[in-house]
Amino acid sequence: MSDCIGHSAPEPAFLEPWHAQVFALTVSLNEAGRFSWADWVEAFSATLRRNGLSRNLDGGADYFNAWLQTLEAILAAQGSASPQEVALVRRDWEEAYLNTPHGDPVQLAR
What we know:
Layout: H1 17-31, H2 37-51, H3 61-78, H4 83-98
Helix pairs in contact: 1-3, 2-3
C-alpha cells in the first residue's frame, strides 16, 4: 500500500458539468468533421483575445463562456444553428432549470 500522506486528490478538469459537456460536444463535432481543430483554435483564440481585452480571464466560467460563444458562432456561420435558434434553446433551458426542483434532472418540454 502506498503512502498518500501529503498528497491531495487532483483538481477536477472542469469546475461545472456544463464545462465538460460543451468541451465534449466540441470534440465530437470536430471528430464528425464539422470543423477542423485548426479552425477551432483560430476562432477560440480570437474570442479569448476579444473577451480578455478588458480583464484577465480566470479560466473558469468566463473561459467556458468564451468556449460556448465560439462554438455558437461556428455553428451559426455554417448555418447549423442560427442565433435565433440558440436564443430559443437557451430560453427553454433557463425556463426548465428554474422550474425544476433542486436535485431533479432538468428536462426540456420540447
